[in-house]
Design goal:
16 strands, kinase activity, 2 domains, Glycerate_kinase_RE-like, Glycerate kinase, domain 2, transferase, elongated, 18% strand, six-stranded mixed beta sheet, Glycerate_kinase_sf, Rossmann fold
């Protein structure tokens, strides 16, 4: 083999995408020392996304003082790629770990995310990728919008920065003073869930409890989101009530569409576009991808299938290395050539998680041994 491309997702709770790339590369090189290996670590928009993009595409990490979820100063960061695309993880300044033991989605804000976006355009970025995930907020992105100049007023004409608990008080929205550089930027939002903004499968009901909301608060948060969606339709003329992914990250998915004219896109599609995957796989003999567990959910556009579909266009075979695999037969029609499980013994995850690195190494070694036979 002359060229191999590695683009695995992380194995949640065990191995990062970068670690898996390293293990795969070591085993490829062990059996094919002269083989060119292209590594593309992947993240879904949550924690680690900036580092993955910088590793795959190059660039720099920029540190900035912004507001945390409680409007206190903190140091956050984002990435600037060589083509001046900014990559922002909302979790960097609105993430759940930042609130520790004071979780309260009624008062937390995404204001800092907007500040990161402003800093990006101030440094010449005309394209911004915002990764949703791991948030502690439920403000529908209103905080981020306020940071870039969108103005919100209550019924008495008083200006406010809406949070999950005050979205229902918004009576007027003005986009007049929104930063022009943000308006003209191309903004893509990485979003890997399809929950709507509100309702029983919306932001508050599905994700509110993990952010500290009890049953009563969940109902209030959901009611506020409904009112806010109605206000947005009246004031801005956009219906965001049933957008797939609108409920992501405390309904920030919906807010990104409403205030930033953003396109919600599966994380893997964003990654593939930015790293120029279609160009990178030209001349490749094989692609390795994978995830912790491959099942019917994987077929809905996650990393493995996203890679498979792109590779299929160029007839490059794709091998999946996964912790567990079930109901994957349809994957073979989506560009996947073969699926291998790393689990060598039928044991509970609580046991095998500690052997993930060892099992990955052994599985990759065996696959490369098989390929070596075929290439003789």
């Amino acid at each position: 083999m002359k060229k191999v491309v590695l683009i695995p997702d992380s194995f949640k709770g065990t191995l990062s995408s970068a670690q898996i790339c390293d293990i795969m590369e070591q085993n490829v090189k062990k059996h094919f020392p002269e083989c060119e290996v292209v590594k593309i670590p992947v993240a879904d928009g949550g924690e680690g996304s900036v580092n993955c993009f910088l590793t795959a595409a190059g660039g720099e990490k920029r540190k900035v003082i912004v507001k945390n979820p409680y409007m206190e100063d903190m140091e956050a960061f984002y990435g600037i790629l060589p083509d001046k695309t900014a990559v922002i993880e909302m979790a960097a300044c609105a993430g759940l770990p930042l609130v520790e033991n004071r979780q309260n989605p009624e008062v937390t804000t995404t204001y800092g995310v907007g500040q990161l976006m402003l800093d990006a355009v101030e440094h010449g970025c005309k394209k911004i990728v915002v990764g949703l995930g791991g948030s502690c907020t439920n403000d529908a992105g209103a905080g981020a919008a306020a940071a870039v100049g969108v103005e919100f007023f209550d019924k008495d004409g008083e200006k406010l920065i809406p949070t999950g608990g005050t979205l229902g008080k918004v009576a007027k929205i003005s986009m007049e003073n929104m930063d022009e550089r943000i308006k003209s930027a191309q903004i893509i939002t990485m979003c890997d869930i399809d929950n709507p903004m509100y309702g029983k499968s919306g932001a508050a009901y599905i994700f509110g409890p993990q952010k500290g909301a009890d049953d009563e608060m969940v109902q209030q948060l959901d009611a506020n989101l409904r009112k806010f969606a109605e206000r947005i339709q009246t004031e801005i003329g956009k219906d965001i009530s049933n957008i797939h992914g609108g409920g992501a990250a405390g309904a920030m998915g919906a807010g990104m569409v409403a205030f930033f004219d953003s396109k919600l896109q599966m994380g893997i599609e964003t990654v593939l576009d930015i790293v120029k995957f279609d160009e990178l796989i030209q001349g490749a003999d094989l692609i390795f991808t994978g995830e912790g567990k491959m099942d019917s959910q994987s077929l809905r556009g996650k990393v493995v299938i996203g890679v498979g579909k792109r590779a299929k266009r160029q007839d490059v075979p794709v091998v999946v290395v996964t912790g567990d695999a079930e109901e994957v037969e349809d994957a073979y029609d989506m560009g996947i050539s073969a699926v291998f499980s790393t689990n060598r013994v039928a044991r509970d995850f609580s046991v095998i998680r500690y052997k993930s690195k060892e099992y990955m190494e052994v599985t990759m070694d065996n696959i490369m041994r098989l390929i070596k036979i075929v290439n003789k």
